[in-house]
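step=encode ok
step=design start
structure_in=
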């Protein structure tokens, strides 16, 4: 069955909830099903990151000119840095009826939902707040101050969790990846997302009725 269109999927979650790892494994497991939007950011590159792979790393001036030129679908500030979704790639995938995933924070997610009311909003969190802190500390990439800031941001983000469609508790990576995949696939089969298949079936049935 040909579904009406591709989905715009947003994955948010507290810093340290494992969304990046979920995404990496999802794309490895289903490379032809999903496309990941790569964001632009003004934050400094972390060890192991590559420009154009994790992010397009930009100066503040470059980021501002992307805003001015209307090149971003949404943008937000997170912990003092700007992050935004380049518009062109998402639009191209929508036109090609392909699924695109945006791994972004909550304010950006809500901007996307306004623009695309059909967007599917997923939120991922660890099984407990203590586990969240352990993961942030264990990552070893952030200073204590940054960890404290990120936990404060998590408190704010938690206030917006009810605006999402699905919650994924990431206690096992494999399970979380399966859940994200299953939710997206099930979403494609919703009646409201398949009006062309329904219309076509009705038309064909009418033809049979007339020829009998
Ligand atoms: P990090 O610096 O840890 O890579 O990302 C910080 C936060 O920014 C994460 O919650 C991440 O999902 C979010 N983020 C990444 N790209 C974008 C984007 O394009 N737009 C918005 N609104 N948030 C983003």
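sequence_out=
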């Amino acid at each position: 069955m040909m579904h009406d269109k591709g989905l715009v999927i947003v994955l948010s979650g507290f810093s340290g909830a494992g969304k990046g790892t979920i995404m990496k494994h999802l794309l490895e497991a289903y490379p032809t099903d999903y496309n990941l939007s790569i964001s632009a950011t003004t934050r400094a590159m972390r060890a192991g990151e590559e420009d154009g792979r994790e992010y397009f790393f930009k100066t503040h001036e470059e980021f501002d000119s992307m805003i001015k030129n209307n090149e971003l679908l949404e943008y937000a500030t997170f912990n003092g840095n700007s992050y935004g979704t380049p518009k062109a790639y998402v639009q191209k995938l929508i036109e090609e009826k392909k699924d695109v995933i945006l791994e972004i924070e909550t304010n950006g997610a809500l901007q996307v939902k306004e623009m695309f009311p059909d967007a599917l909003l997923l939120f991922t969190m660890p099984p407990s707040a203590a586990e969240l802190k352990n993961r942030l500390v264990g990552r070893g990439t952030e200073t204590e101050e940054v960890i404290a800031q990120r936990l404060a941001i998590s408190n704010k983000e938690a206030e917006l969790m009810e605006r999402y469609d699905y919650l994924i508790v990431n206690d096992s990576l494999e399970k979380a990846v399966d859940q994200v995949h299953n939710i997206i696939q099930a979403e494609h089969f919703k009646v409201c997302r398949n009006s062309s298949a329904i219309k076509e079936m009705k038309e064909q049935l009418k033809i049979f009725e007339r020829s009998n």
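step=design ok
step=annotate ok -> The pocket of guanosine-5'-monophosphate is lined by residues 15, 39, 43, 74, 76, 78, 83-85, 103-105, 108 (CB under 6 Å).
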